[in-house]
């Protein structure tokens, strides 16, 4: 049985695509749904969940960030 955990961080969408926080949250959730459906079609059991109040201390090495957000996850197990 192989388990996998995949995270979708809204801050990645904000930084890469210049989205505002609300749009980035929606995009992260939508990306999670797309991957969840694809994994289910491949025969995986999928659980979606959210980890709230996560602090990103650093944007990159030596560059402070300090933003707090919810990170969206999915866990998969091969059936």
Describe the structure.
- With 79 residues, the protein is an alpha+beta fold.
- It has one domain (3-78).
- The protein is built from 2 helices and 3 strands, in the order βααββ.
- It has a 3-stranded antiparallel β-sheet with strand order 1-3-2.
- α1 (10-17) crosses α2 (21-41).
- The model has no long low-confidence stretch (mean pLDDT 95).
Summarize the model shown:
This protein is of the alpha+beta class and 79 residues long.
Unreliable runs: none
User: What's the structural domain tally?
Assistant: 1
Distance between the termini: 8 Å
Q: List the total number of helices.
A: 2
Round the Cα radius of gyration to an integer and report it: 14 Å
The rough form would be described as elongated
Q: Compute the number of strand runs.
A: 3
Largest sheet: 3 strands, antiparallel
Strand order of the largest sheet: 1-3-2
Given the helix and strand composition, which structural class is it?
alpha+beta
Strand content: over 45%
What's the rounded overall pLDDT mean? 95
Helix content: 25-40%
Q: How is this fold's topology laid out?
A:
Blueprint: E1 3-8, H1 10-17, H2 21-41, E2 44-60, E3 63-78
Antiparallel strand pairs: 1-3, 2-3
Helix pairs in contact: 1-2
List keywords for this structure.
single chain, alpha+beta, three-stranded antiparallel sheet, about 50% strand, elongated
